[in-house]
Amino acid sequence: MRIEFFGVRGTAPTAPRRGSVYGGHTPCALVRTSAGTDFIVDAGTGLVSLAKSPAFSRRTSLRILHILLTHFHFDHVSGLPFFPEIFRAGADLRFYSSGPAAALRRRLEEFMTGPYFPVEFKATPSRKSFGRVGRRPASVGGAKVSSHPLHHPQGCAAFRIEENGRSVVFATDTEHGPGGADEGLAAFARGTDALIYDATFTPAEYAAGRKGWGHSTWAAGVELARAAGAARLVLSHFNPDHSDAKLGRLEDAARRRFPRSLFAREGLILRLER
Ligand SMILES: [Zn+2]
Ligand SMILES: [Zn+2]
After folding, report:
1. Domain coordinates of the chain in residue numbers?
2. Were 141 and a residue from 14, 37, 75, 170 both cysteine, which residue would form a disulfide, CB within 3.0 to 4.6 Å?
3. How far is the centre of ligand 2, averaged over its atoms, from the C-alpha of 72 (Å)?
4. How far is the CA of 72 from the centre of ligand 1 (A)?
5. How far is the CA of 190 from the centre of ligand 1 (A)?
């Protein structure tokens, strides 16, 4: 399994200076299984650069794309109208969320429509289907995919993708509980090879008035990774106000507590080999 990150910024895209270490696009990652199935997790502005990436553009003959949407906040869907595959007649786009398929379809149609965008989602030529990924693992493209509800305003789903003895868990937008690690999420992420987790706030910012905002910290991520027995912790969904220098310091702090942790960045590729 190979995971490539195209957007790791939360809330709003930033306009990074040239050479930004972490990048400014909002969440989007490409998960390619060892069998060659492509999953896109979230359709933030990083989706625009995913479409131009070598890993993706070499695969234009590949028709089927499985697109998992954690939720519908702007930072997780705003790349969708700018994704060229939507406009390609040969593309077979299979969208999933943790809710009913009809609601997923309706939300995307309501999001990509006039007067917000000049082309209607439902009028685009790609083939589209809509499905639900529930808590019980379902077979999607030869992988097992499941979801778990997170603590986030209006809801958000964590997704777990397992294939060929390897797994990844995306928990992009969530708030830890007052007692530390979220036990339900730890159980969902048990033994995963890569736990991708919300590090929007520093612990100090969180304590100073950000409780209840539905986001977490790198330190809570460390607690969760330990509770889950995750092999690796990948922190993400960075605050648009956090500079590269600040994120670098936070990354060092996370590594001191949990050596197998890193901060995601645009262009980061994780290979989970057997
Ligand atoms: Zn978000
Ligand atoms: Zn959100």
Report:
1. 2-271
2. 37
3. 7
4. 9
5. 23
Backbone φ and ψ of 53, nearest 5°: -75, 150
Summarize pLDDT for 90-125 with one digit per residue, the tens: 899 999 999 999 999 999 999 999 999 999 999 999
Q: How far is the CA of 103 from the centre of ligand 2 (A)?
A: 17
Q: How far is the CA of 90 from the centre of ligand 1 (A)?
A: 30
Q: What is the pTM of this model?
A: 0.96
Is the preceding peptide bond at 81 cis, omega within 30 degrees of 0? no
- Ligand 1 centre and the CA of 76: distance in Å? 6
| Residue pLDDT, tens place only, 120-176 | 999 999 999 999 999 999 999 999 999 999 999 999 999 999 999 999 999 999 999
How many other C-beta atoms can be found within 10 angstroms of the C-beta atom of residue 122? 11
Query: Distance between CA atoms of 78 and 61, rounded to whole angstroms?
Result: 25
> How many angstroms from the chain centroid is the CA of residue 8?
8
CA 89 / ligand 1 centre spacing (Å)? 30
**Ligand 1 centroid, distance to 88 Cα (angstroms):** 28
Q: Which superfamily does 2-271 belong to?
A: Ribonuclease Z/Hydroxyacylglutathione hydrolase-like (3.60.15.10)
For residue 27, the ligand closest to its alpha carbon is: 1
